[in-house]
């Protein structure tokens, strides 16, 4: 009983110490104590290694992703009446003729397309995501920056490494080492927010998002059965054309090299029914 | 200072770290309630023929194409819940709770409750997965560990299930790894299923949830409009006028729904059965050029992930009943105040080990009865030793044909005095429960018995079920395929599932793992479907060679097939053919 009561302040103190160390973790060298180190670059402080070649596994929404659905088919997508009206006017030939063939390859729809990704560091604070299909390049920028005036298919993206939600990070106390009982190196995720988009399509069949859409994404990597998988949780916020946020998740399998990398320009295949006519 | 050291040690101990690093507790809904992906899965279900985007091999495709939606009208399947590999993908509210150890207050498990599935327990306390002979369930057995910010859950011991609600299968050999990762108020579950029986590579699915702000969501909402608890025990009903033992399925090439799907969505038939290739981006180009690479071949037989350990071992089944594995054939043991009753005794070589294991379980209680379900040496080899233990002359009970066959084959067990019966059944009351010994004619042999422990609610199935091979019978020993199917249906007349098509009456097979009613029904379905396919070939005038080339057991060979040994897939098909064609 006596031990129990006297242990309370010690426990509180210890928890506070851990919390403080957790908060300060990014500025500390591994281990306890020592002078604060210079801020590390995004590449140095990466919580997860997203680099490499990845191929989309289209195991979900196949009839809307692998093939082009018929005009007006908005199954699962919370389009509002304005969005449905735009979707009903979709004309891929008109898009191609007006130089807008890359509308389905804009950031808010790109990760749902059947593509391969090449993820690499453009510089120590900019992560680059390239696609073979559509030949698009996304730049995920860490730290402060100024968005350009011009809107683009891939918009302007800010990025940050994320911390666990709902708990404290024991890795901070352990100097960056993985805690006992967990496997492998520390694994976190990357949060990216994209704005300044040029209006594009959520799906190949012309389901629209507006130039005011905001895209929030969470990138992480998981492993199972000898494979690495890149997962992307995407939230599209676009009151102009959506009744609510449009939330999807997509996954990619790591490929050993670039042997399957097959760049091709933006192109939308006609719906299968039309192709067979 | 010493107290702080103690606290620090506790905080950094593995037990402490086993507790949640990220908080998943709460109620989660798919965004927009039904989610923004694969609407058909969240609603009425995907159509027959929608097999694209799945890494099915040719066995998986065959199984899917033979699936009939009427399968759900079969009494034993009516209450089937969404299996673990599918549950989160269906219409679903997910409620996550943490369970704490009563003493240490360390989180020992996470509980996942979903709308149409069974509640799942993810053990965090380091316990091992059960032995391979343990009962498989729709939720499987799950353990969890932290990997960075993700909870990684590994699940085994799953019953055969599906990836989509259109018959795209998963087998009992499937293994599943899930990563639960929280991003702000979103929960992402990445599900990876590896099934060497039906897949050519692992299947991956990502499912997202949003932490719900709805007050007191209940499972079943929105279908109950959250207006109170529902009683969802689910008992089967007679839903069709089809015969009691009707097994609905499509014969190869006769599923007209496949053409309907192809026409409706303009997806070529070859693309619907192209398997893993359909998942990759280059398949879009193939759709335009009409070029097909073909689906991956099915394995002839898939070794168990977790081979049974060597040696004798036992497991409590239910009530007064235990099972001993590793003796050649399974040995069922009923133990009580009056002594011990043994159903089948394994091989003669294992008899002493079986006796020792019975003593370990029952102490010095004497063996009073030995019941032989059939005459084969891997089930009667221990009769001489176990029935003649010092101080305990046990009565040997069997159908008359068992005694005749033992004498005919010159077995030592044939020299023992037996208490045989001629009619349909024999009953005894022992250790406080009625025990029915039920003869099933012309099944595995001509002398098979089932042993039903009424009080314990356990059936010992003897030679009628082997979970490690296709059902076997020899016409020369009085067996037949029709008799085997009838025997399996007889078991289904006895068994009752506890809830949601699992649990309840337990069934000890002659070989292999523990079964319940649904497992027996799947086994019965399998034999009935293969019988129908072979009969169809016979009706068409096909030769035995032509029927073998059509591979009527393709979709079941991964689990039950063998390319060598005493009961190959080829021998199984040939035995059925000769039996049905009257060429015995």
Distance between the termini of chain B: 85 Å
Task: Summarize the main sheet of chain B.
Answer: 9 strands, mixed, barrel
- Count of domain modules of chain B: 2
Structural class of chain A: alpha+beta
Strand order of the largest sheet of chain B: 1-2-3-4-5-6-9-10-11
Structural class of chain B: alpha+beta
Proportion of residues in extended strands of chain A: 25-35%
Order of helices and strands of chain A: HEHHHHEEEEHEEEEEEH
Q: Strand portion of chain B, in percent?
A: 25-35%
Total number of beta strands of chain A = 11
Average pLDDT level of chain A: 84
Q: Which radius of gyration of chain A do the C-alpha atoms yield?
A: 22 Å
Give the mean pLDDT of chain B: 91
Radius of gyration of chain B over alpha carbons? 26 Å
User: Main interface pair?
Assistant: A-B, 80 and 65 residues
**Helical residue percent band of chain A:** 10-25%
Please tally the β strands of chain B and state the result: 27
Helicity of chain B, as a percent range: 10-25%
Count of helical regions of chain B: 17
Largest sheet of chain A: 9 strands, mixed, barrel
Give the count of helical stretches of chain A.
7
Could you please describe the fold and organization of this structure?
The complex is a heterodimer of chains A (277) and B (584). Chain A has helices at residues 2-23, 62-65, 81-88, 92-97, 107-110, 170-173, 272-275, and strands spanning 52-56, 116-123, 126-131, 137-142, 156-162, 189-195, 200-201, 208-209, 214-224, 227-237, 246-255. Chain A is an alpha+beta fold and 277 residues long. Chain A folds into two domains: 1-39, no CATH class; 42-275, no CATH class. Chain A starts with a helix and ends with a helix. The relative contact order of chain A is 0.20. Chain B is of the alpha+beta class and 584 residues long. Chain B has two domains: 17-307, no CATH class; 313-521, Ribonuclease Z/Hydroxyacylglutathione hydrolase-like (Metallo-beta-lactamase, Chain A). In chain B, helix 13 packs antiparallel against helix 14 (517-539) and helix 14 crosses helix 17 (569-580). The model of chain B is unreliable at 1-20 and 221-225 (pLDDT under 50).
């Amino acid at each position: 009983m006596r031990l129990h009561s006297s242990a309370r302040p010690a426990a509180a103190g210890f928890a506070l110490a851990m919390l403080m160390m957790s908060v300060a973790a990014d500025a500390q060298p591994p281990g306890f104590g020592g002078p604060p180190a210079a801020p590390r670059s995004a590449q140095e402080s990466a919580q997860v290694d997203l680099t490499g070649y990845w191929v989309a596994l289209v195991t979900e929404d196949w009839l809307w992703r692998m093939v082009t659905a018929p005009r007006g088919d908005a199954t699962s997508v919370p389009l509002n009446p304005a969005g449905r009206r735009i979707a009903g006017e979709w004309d891929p030939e008109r898009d191609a003729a007006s130089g807008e063939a890359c509308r389905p390859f804009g950031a808010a729809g790109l990760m749902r397309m059947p593509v391969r990704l090449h993820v690499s560091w453009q510089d120590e604070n900019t992560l680059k995501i390239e696609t073979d299909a559509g030949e698009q390049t996304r730049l995920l920028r860490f730290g402060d920056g100024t968005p350009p005036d011009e809107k683009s298919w891939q918009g302007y993206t800010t990025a940050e490494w994320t911390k666990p939600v709902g708990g404290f990070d024991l890795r901070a106390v352990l100097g960056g080492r993985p805690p006992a009982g967990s496997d492998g190196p520390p694994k976190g995720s990357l949060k990216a927010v994209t704005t300044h988009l040029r209006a594009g399509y959520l799906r190949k069949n012309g389901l629209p998002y507006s130039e005011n859409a905001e895209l929030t994404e969470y990138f992480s990597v998981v492993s199972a059965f000898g494979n690495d998988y890149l997962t992307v949780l995407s939230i599209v916020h676009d009151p102009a054309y959506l009744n609510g946020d449009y939330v999807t998740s997509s996954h990619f399998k790591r490929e050993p090299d670039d042997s399957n990398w097959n760049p091709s320009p933006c192109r939308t295949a006609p719906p299968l029914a039309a192709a067979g006519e | 200072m010493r107290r702080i050291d103690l606290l620090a040690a506790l905080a950094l101990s593995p037990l402490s770290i086993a507790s949640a690093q990220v908080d998943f507790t709460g109620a989660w809904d798919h965004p927009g309630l039904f989610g923004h992906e694969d609407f058909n899965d969240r609603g009425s279900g995907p159509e027959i023929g929608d097999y694209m985007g799945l890494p099915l091999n040719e066995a998986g495709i065959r199984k899917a194409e033979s699936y009939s939606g009427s399968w759900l009208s079969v009494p034993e399947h009516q209450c089937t819940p969404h299996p673990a590999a599918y549950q989160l993908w269906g219409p679903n509210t997910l409620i996550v709770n943490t369970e704490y150890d009563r003493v240490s207050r360390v989180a020992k498990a996470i509980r996942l409750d979903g709308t149409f599935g069974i509640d799942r327990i993810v053990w965090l306390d380091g316990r091992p997965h059960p032995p391979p002979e343990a009962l498989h369930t729709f939720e499987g057995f799950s353990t969890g560990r932290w990997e960075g910010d993700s909870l990684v859950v590994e699940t085994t011991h799953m019953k055969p299930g599906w990836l989509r609600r259109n018959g795209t299968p998963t087998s009992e050999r499937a293994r599943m790894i899930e990563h639960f990762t929280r991003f702000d108020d979103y929960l992402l579950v990445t599900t990876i299923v590896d099934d060497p029986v039906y897949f050519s590579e692992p299947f991956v699915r990502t499912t997202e949830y949003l932490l719900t702000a709805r007050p007191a969501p209940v499972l079943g909402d929105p279908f109950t409009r959250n207006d109170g608890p529902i009683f969802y025990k689910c008992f089967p009903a007679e839903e069709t006028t089809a015969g009691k033992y009707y097994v609905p399925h499509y014969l190869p090439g006769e599923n007209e729904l496949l053409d309907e799907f192809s026409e409706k969505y303009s997806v070529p038939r070859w693309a619907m059965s192209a398997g893993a290739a359909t998942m990759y981006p280059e398949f879009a180009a193939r759709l335009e050029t009409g070029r097909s690479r073909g689906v991956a071949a099915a394995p002839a037989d898939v070794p168990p992930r977790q081979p049974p350990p060597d040696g004798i071992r036992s497991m409590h089944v239910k009530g007064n009943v235990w099972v001993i594995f590793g003796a050649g054939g399974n040995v069922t043991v009923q133990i009580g105040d009056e002594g011990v009753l043994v159903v089948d005794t394994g091989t003669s070589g294992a008899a002493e080990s079986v006796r020792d294991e019975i003593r370990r379980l029952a102490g010095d209680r004497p063996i009073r009865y030995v019941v032989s379900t059939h005459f084969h040496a891997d089930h009667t080899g221990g009769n001489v030793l176990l029935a003649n233990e010092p101080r305990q002359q046990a009565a040997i009970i069997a159908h008359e044909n068992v005694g005749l066959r033992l004498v005919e084959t010159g077995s030592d067990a044939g020299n023992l005095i037996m208490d045989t019966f001629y009619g349909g059944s024999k009953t005894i009351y022992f250790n406080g429960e009625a025990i029915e010994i039920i003869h099933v004619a012309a099944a595995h042999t001509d002398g098979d018995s089932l042993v039903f422990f009424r009080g314990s609610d356990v059936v010992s199935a003897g030679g009628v079920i082997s979970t490690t091979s296709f059902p076997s019978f020899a016409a020369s020993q009085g067996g037949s395929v029709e008799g085997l199917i009838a025997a399996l249906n007889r078991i289904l007349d006895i068994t009752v599932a506890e809830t949601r098509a699992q649990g309840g009456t337990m069934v000890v097979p002659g070989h292999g793992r523990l079964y319940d009613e649904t497992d027996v029904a799947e086994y019965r379905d399998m034999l009935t479907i293969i019988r129908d396919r072979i009969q169809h070939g016979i009706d068409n005038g096909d030769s035995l060679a032509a029927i073998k080339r059509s591979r009527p057991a393709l979709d079941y060979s991964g689990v039950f097939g063998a390319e060598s040994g005493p009961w190959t897939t080829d021998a199984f098909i040939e035995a059925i053919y000769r039996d049905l064609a009257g060429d015995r």
